[in-house]
Amino acid sequence: MTYAGKVPLAIRLRGVVKRYGEITAVGGLDLDVPEGTCVGLLGPNGAGKSTTMRLLTAQAIADEGELEVLGFRLPEESKQARAQCGVTPQLDNLDTTLTVEQNLIVFAHLYRVPRKERKAAVERALDIARLRERRGAKVDELSGGMRRRLLIARALVHQPRLLLLDEPTVGLDPQVRQELWALIDGLRSEGVSILMSTHYIEEAERLADTVMIMSHGKAVASGEPRQLIDEHAGREVIEVYGPPATLVEAEAEAQRNGFLTRRTGTSVAVLRLEGANGSAPQGRRRASTLEDVFVLLTGEEIS
After folding, report:
1. Cα-to-chain-centroid distance, residue 172
2. Could you tell me the CA-to-CA distances from 12 to 72, 99, 134, 178, 241 in Å, in that order?
3. How do 260-263 and 284-287 pair as beta strands?
4. Per-residue pLDDT tens over the stretch 111-141
5. Do both 273 and 137 map to the same domain?
């Protein structure tokens, strides 16, 4: 078993590269997920998050590098690793011809849950996802939020040590997203190791113990959300509002005075107020966020 300090690692990646022809989807990625923690992969579309997930489930094979999941080397020992992992894919692949309960029963068989334990395993999964009252409903009768909860329950039916969540709340409205956040946070509190890819900034900041920000297949920063905010954006930001010409002028002046800046649509955000010698412009002060760091490091607007 590989350790980060004294904590066993659920996932260990070193120098991982995955190419598709001339495109490098993942380029030299290092990643540690200590057991019992939630790590968020944060990045714009095309950053390499989903490819990383496919590598960890052996749906794709790395061209270079070392991959270990729960102490098993990939791809040689991928079967053993997958037996102890639960996977929630980005795309809904539930069997719509079956009921909620039947979907769980099928996966209890696939994960080889012992016959005498299957009923209890299905009941536990239904409770986790709060779907006990909908157990007899066909999947196509469920709301989008219920279907996402069922996907997570399906991944948990065999009580895995590691849960891989690929964009777990994509396409959901804010209220349903909050419900799923509570579910994921509860799993983490029970000691389940979680790797979650997302492009929702608030999701990563709310759920993840540590975050890795990816861009163009590479990691550009990694650490606790608050640590990344302090390091890259500072404690406070000034938002300058006005017409385009005013914003261009404010941005240029702030940069001449040694401040970092980023565009935020109708405003310019002036960062690292404590790190420059010049005078800060006038504007609305607010606390720095992980979104500031994200846009500063990736050069991308939030999708």
Report:
1. 15
2. 10, 37, 38, 29, 44
3. unpaired
4. 999 999 999 999 999 999 899 999 999 999 9
5. no
What is the domain range of residue 279? Answer: 234-287
Q: What pLDDT shows up at residue 5? A: 55
* DSSP letter, residue 99: B
**Tokens of residue 219, six digits:** 């990691």
Among 8, 32, 49, 43, CA closest to 201: 43
Cα–Cα distance measured from residue 144 to residue 126, given in angstroms and rounded to the nearest whole number: 16
Give yes or no for residue 2 having a pLDDT over 60: no
295 within a domain of the structure (yes/no): no
Q: Give the tokens for residue 53.
A: 């997930």
The structure tokens listed for 80 are 């053993």
**What secondary structure letter does DSSP report for 80?**
H
- Which band of pLDDT confidence, cut at 50, 70 and 90, is reported for residue 303? very low
161 pLDDT more than 60 = yes
